[in-house]
Write a structure and sequence with these properties.
This is Protein NO VEIN C-terminal domain-containing protein. Residues 1-22 are annotated as: Disordered. It comes from Propionicimonas paludicola. This protein has 316 residues and is an alpha+beta fold. It folds into two domains: 2-161, ph1033 like fold (Roll); 173-304, Trna Endonuclease, Chain: A, domain 1 (3-Layer(aba) Sandwich). Helices cover 25% and strands 30% of the residues. It is built from eight helices and 15 strands. The protein has helices at 26-29, 74-80, 105-110, 112-126, 154-161, 173-180, 192-212, 255-263; strands at residues 2-4, 12-16, 39-44, 52-59, 64-70, 84-104, 134-137, 141-144, 217-220, 227-231, 234-242, 267-273, 276-279, 285-288, 291-295. Strands 1, 2, 3, 4, 5 and 6 form a six-stranded mixed β-sheet that branches. A five-stranded mixed β-sheet has the order 9-10-11-12-15, with helices on both faces. A two-stranded antiparallel ribbon has the order 7-8.
Length: 316
């Protein structure tokens, strides 16, 4: 999570390689661990009048070095009155998305005890303090850590971003849409349980779709493609993608999926976005809804593909 007051949210991450004294700072160095495809939350100190997580971006990369001028924080930094210039880490971001329901400091403090419990469990697990997003200020309220970049544990994503199911309350279609609206790309999900639930939900919808279309055979495979369908006497292979985002403009595909779609035709790309995800009282992930879009006889085009990760072969 980036903790900032900058106006250009979602453009990039940048941090000095050292503080004014020349020493490394863990909050700055943490930037070197961010990988392409990682989700970065943005905690803004003043945008809403109350500090809050106001949105998220996807790390694009690659990590590089730039020259940067900055005003050091703290009493000593302000007393110097002169910006510091030096080498800095820089990582490009993309697909900045504002949250429909920002996670304000009030919301965070509403979960204060649970957040502290999660942090204590993590520290007990690793045997040392974790670079978490919040500090227990005065043992009475949570505030964002006094840092630039902090780790955001998956357990906190589950706590703060996946709403509990509430069967007793009826929501309008517009409210359900807002609950689901997370972004305009498929993104990378930190919670494996949510990711699996989304994939299974989309596969069920795809199965129903082809069954209604009169498919003679439907076989769920998963690898190297999701479905094998015999429709109108023709064998089709189907790649299924799912997202909680609404009107997504991109999905994550592997090189293997691209190669297979180019070698076998017809291959369909079946995309379900706007899936609503809630968490039942017993902890079960519940999925519902979603909009179906189908690209029949899909052949991946080079101009529509963008690498999000690169593999570097180490020389011996």
């Amino acid at each position: 999570m980036e903790i900032t007051g900058r106006p250009d949210l979602g453009s990039d991450l940048k941090a000095p390689k050292s503080d004014p004294s020349g020493r490394a700072n863990w909050s700055y160095s943490l930037l070197t661990y961010v990988q392409p495809g990682d989700r970065v939350f943005h905690w803004h100190t003043s945008l809403l009048g109350e500090p809050a997580i106001v949105g998220w971006s996807e790390a694009a990369g690659p990590l590089n070095t730039i020259s940067m001028s900055w005003q050091a924080r703290g009493t000593r930094g302000r007393a110097r009155g002169v910006p510091t210039t030096g080498p800095a880490w820089h990582l490009a971001l993309q697909n900045f998305t504002r949250l429909d329901r920002p996670i304000t400091r009030s919301v965070v403090n509403g979960q204060r005890l649970k957040i502290l419990e999660i942090q204590h469990e993590l520290e007990a697990l690793v045997g040392k303090p974790v670079y978490g997003p919040f500090q227990d200020y005065g043992h009475r309220e949570l505030r964002a850590n006094q840092a630039y970049l902090v780790e955001f544990p998956a357990a906190l994503v589950d706590l703060l971003f996946v709403p509990p199911a509430n069967p007793a309350r009826t929501t309008s279609p517009s409210e359900r849409s807002k609950t689901a609206r997370i972004g305009h790309t498929q993104g990378f999900l930190a919670d494996a349980a949510v990711r699996t639930a989304l994939e299974l939900h989309a596969v069920r919808l795809a199965n129903d779709h082809y069954s209604s279309a009169g498919a003679a055979e439907i076989e769920v495979l998963g690898k190297p493609f999701d479905l094998r369908v015999v429709l109108n006497g023709e064998e089709r292979h189907v790649e299924v993608k799912a997202s909680m985002g609404v009107d997504i403009e991109a999905v994550q595909v592997t090189q293997g999926e691209v190669d297979h779609a180019r070698k076998w035709q017809p291959t369909d790309l079946f995309v379900v976005d706007g899936v609503r995800v809630t968490k039942a009282g017993n902890g079960e992930i519940v999925t519902s809804g979603g909009r179906i879009r189908l690209w029949s006889s899909w052949v991946p085009e080079d101009q529509a593909l963008r690498p999000t990760q690169l593999r570097y072969t180490l020389r011996r």
